[in-house]
Amino acid sequence: MEILRKIAVPVMAILAFLAVWEALVQINDWPNYVMASPSDLPAAYAQFWELFLVGSWQTLWRTVAGLGLAVVFGLLLGMVMGFSRIMRDALYPLLVGFNAIPKATLVPVLALLFIGQHDFNTVLMAFLISFFPIAVSVGIGLSTLEPEYRDILRSLGASRFTIFRKIALPKTLPEFFGALKVSVTLAFIGTNLVEIVSPHGRGLGALFLSAQTNSNYPLMFAVLIALAVLGIVLYYAVVALERIFAGWAERQAT
Amino acid sequence: MKNLIEIKGVRHAYKTRTGPLPVLDGLDISVPEGEFCAVVGPSGCGKSTLTRLVAGLMKPDEGEVWLDGKKVSSPRKTVGMAFQNPVLLEWRTILDNVILPLEIVAPSMPRRDRVVRAEELLEMVGLSGFEGKRPSELSGGMRQRASLCRAIVHKPSVLIMDEPFGALDNFTREDLWQTMRDLRAKEPFTAVLITHDLRESVFLGDQVVVLSGRPARTQYILDVDLPQDRTIDVLYAQKAADMLQTLRDQIKIAQGRDPEAA
Ligand SMILES: Nc1ncnc2c1ncn2[C@@H]1O[C@H](COP(=O)(O)OP(=O)(O)OP(=O)(O)O)[C@@H](O)[C@H]1O
Ligand SMILES: [Mg+2]
What residues does the ABC transporter domain cover (chain B) (predicted)? Predict the structure, then answer.
């Protein structure tokens, strides 16, 4: 019953959303080039399903690769900032400044730096846009660890690394996953940004661009929906990981 | 009997933004092997600082701390610690929380033996059946019991407790005093117990050290000559009442008030 409700409610919400969308288009009598309606989409998917598969895969792996880099780099940076006050003071303003730069401005910079390296540029952008929340949350999590938690192991002569592995890291996991949920969305945006902006790109973003060039409006909307689905999949993948690795924290949130 | 803990002429000051803050100013305490030393003193006088020095987490500016014939200069595996906050790890079960020190102190000990040891202690404090629970599923008193098990699971020679029962209600606290007394009969350790509860210091202590206000000196040492297997009733007998009165007067002096005045 519980499971049924958990599936039925979101499915109904999506159906309702599609119905409203369809109705709006019908009532206003919008032509396709203003707004395609849901009923136009199946045809677009049927016609271009191969492009969708290839594009989705490219968008997916580059997002995940960028996010993976962001996790590794963000963790390291967070550790450095969490354990050293001086490093925190030194790095924080730099990071905030970097994070404030609109990432769209980086696309041409990267494109010039690494000409023609489309995969590399895309992964790099996904990484650049998404490591900040991870670094900050891990840094704050580690630096606000109550001293007593450290002392129960330190008083036994445990090394800093052991304390990090057994206490600091697991204790920071809930914050880490909170940040990862933000980062996965950001990485996805970063990937699409590069795909859409760069000429001869790949992935769903490029498919969107070519649909636009060819004035295939239903295809454009079909790509948008595909992007939304992919975004949802990625997000819930992170949620699943969180359940596995930081499920113990759930009870305390209530 | 030899002194297992020896604190000689310890002085310590914290460096703060507004200059050095002297906290300990000539501390002398000796605890014979197997005995319980209760430490009381005004709030903020440096009691927690004292525990950190004994544990080797900090070095005193002056003076020496000796444990078991060796000068303390860094943390050592023969120490167990418990705090007011039980600081259990939420992602571990109660059993795995208790086992934690063994992972550091005895890395080669088989898991089976660790479990046996932890279960033995949990049984002693009345937590049998809660091994698989998470800390969030236990009451405050039960968490503190688990925390005590963790503090002694590796058979430390010195147990350092910083107001371990401070956050508990009266009934739970008296329960835990008795648990502590029973543990002590079965497990050989020498203990330093920081407390702000004078009845607790008399019930559990073999001596009660009164610290003066900050910067703290050893102001007064009370020998608690009561049998080790005391019951809560002794607290209501004349002998204990006299000791409590003495301690109360000493605390007033430590706070800089005249004991005759009030
Ligand atoms: N790391 C630190 N840096 C600077 N000052 C500190 C530090 N730790 C403690 N102090 C100061 O030293 C004094 C003694 O602190 P301590 O925690 O040892 O007192 P306490 O007797 O345990 O107090 P309480 O009874 O409230 O637990 C306090 O005035 C405190 O502000
Ligand atoms: Mg204290």
Answer: 5-238
Instruction: Decide if A207 touches B, using CB distance below 8 A.
Output: no
Q: Is the CB of B20 under 6 A from ligand 1?
A: no
| Residue corresponding to tokens 């209760």 | B38
Q: What is the pLDDT of residue A254?
A: 45
Nearest to A158 among B104, B136, B154 (CB): B104
Q: What is the mean pLDDT of residues B57-75?
A: 91
CA–CA dist A197, A125 (Å, integer)? 12
Query: Domain B1-78+158-164+188-262 in CATH: superfamily?
Result: P-loop containing nucleotide triphosphate hydrolases (3.40.50.300)
B165 CA → ligand 1 middle, Å: 19
- Which single residue is written with the structure tokens 């592995």? A165
Backbone angles phi, psi at B44, to 5 degrees: 80, 15
Which of B47, B192, B209, B218 has the most ligand 1 atoms within 8 A of CB, as the residue to mutate? B47
Model ipTM value:
0.83
Whole-angstrom distance, CA of residue B223 vs CA of residue A173: 49
